[in-house]
Amino acid sequence: xxELGVADHLAHGPLDTEELAARCGAHAPSLRRVLRELASIGxxxxxxxxxxxxxxxxxxxxxxxxxxxxxxxxMLGEExxxxxxxxxxxxxxxxxxxxxxxxxxLYEHLARHPEISRIFDDYMTARADxxxxxxVTRYDFxxxxxxxxxxxxxxxxxxxxxxxxxxMRGILLDLDHVAAHAGDVLAAAGLAxxxxxxAGNFFDSVPxxxxxxxxxxxxxNWGDDxxxxxxxxxxxxMKPGGRVLILEVVLPDDAEPHLxxxxxxxxxxxxxxxxxxxxxxxxKLFASADLELGQVVELGAGASLLEAKPI
Length: 311
Fold this sequence. Notes:
Blueprint: H1 6-9, E1 15-16, H2 17-24, H3 28-40, E2 44-46, E3 51-54, H4 70-77, H5 79-86, H6 88-94, H7 98-103, H8 106-112, H9 114-138, E4 146-150, H10 156-164, E5 169-174, H11 176-188, E6 195-199, E7 212-216, H12 224-237, E8 243-248, E9 250-251, H13 259-270, E10 277-278, H14 279-288, E11 291-300, E12 303-310
Parallel strand pairs: 4-5, 4-7, 5-6, 7-8, 9-10
Antiparallel strand pairs: 1-3, 2-3, 8-12, 11-12
Helix pairs in contact: 2-3, 4-9, 8-9, 9-10
């Protein structure tokens, strides 16, 4: 349903299967069988002879609604990501990612396949939406002149923070193939005159002179040594009195159910070394980079903001 865009095509009213198949580019008899199953789980409903309508539950699979999960479903079902989870037993047996063995490092894989990269970027943008609202309402950016968004993707988080803080300027750093799209997003948001987009690799360096450095869903991609290397580059680049903000899912120290524990298995499947971490784990990383953990702000949607300052 997500990949074929069924919810988008049903957004404006019921369609019969033949018409819906034509719009989706699908084989009508096969789609008819899928619709029968979708109706049984409540995301579409019959609306006359061989006609289907979208339900309220199914509307979250539209591309154009707040809280859409379409990009998440497409990412989970994308061939290489599906392979990663299917090969999780092999990864656990060997202690190294079957995904990496077959496809290479994730970001190199995405750079080679723009169509997958677009799905991934859509997913990351949608995923960030909920906790970005928490970021701008629950963290005090008073006095921040420049924020550097390290590996800032398309720039959606930076754009939200800048709109909420009109006196702030921003710098976004990301790899070449990502940074090219970020400039377009920031310009479309009317923020081109307040932003600089820099193409580069945070293992080499990060832009200097920032008051705040944001790393959102970055450190969990890397093992401890690489994470410390990134943090040291940030520590070296920041102004005196600067801060580092780490936006991640933070694992509880006990056995309670938590979204991060499911995400951690996906990190295990896709990366060699990447993992979700606890507050204590992050405190150790910061100390290794001459930083000290300060406040931790819950942002909602399972995410937290960890603030660190130079020791």
